[in-house]
Amino acid sequence: MAMYIPVVATDVGGTSEAIVDGQTGILVPPAQPELLASAIEKLINNMELAKSLVIAARQRVEKYFSVDSFVSHYAEVFDELVPPK
């Protein structure tokens, strides 16, 4: 996502926290190789879709997964845990 590459992934673990299906990538159920191949083929055959997913994915990375957002999030957590003096 951060490298402007369209993402097709299986919906396991925390994948759906990073990828919004149909908006920032394509999620398929696990253990469904036919659906995975179909989703990849869909992006190969529809460059406009691939381009729109890439743009939205990069924006999501910058908003939620950048170093600055992680630092900001951790600062908020510490502010909640440590009361002001």
Give a verbal description of the structure.
The chain is mainly α. The chain has a single domain (8-81), classed as Glycogen Phosphorylase B (Rossmann fold, 3-Layer(aba) Sandwich). The protein is 59% helix and 7% strand. The chain has four helices and two strands. The chain has helices spanning 15-18, 33-45, 47-64, 67-81, and strands at 8-10, 26-28. A two-stranded parallel sheet has the order 1-2. Strand 1 (8-10), helix 1 (15-18) and strand 2 (26-28) form a beta-alpha-beta unit. The longest helix is centred in the middle third of the chain and has 18 residues, at 47-64. It is elongated, with a radius of gyration of 17 Å.
Write the SSE topology:
Layout (H helix, E strand, L loop, with lengths): L7 E3 L4 H4 L7 E3 L4 H13 L1 H18 L2 H15 L4
Parallel strand pairs: 1-2
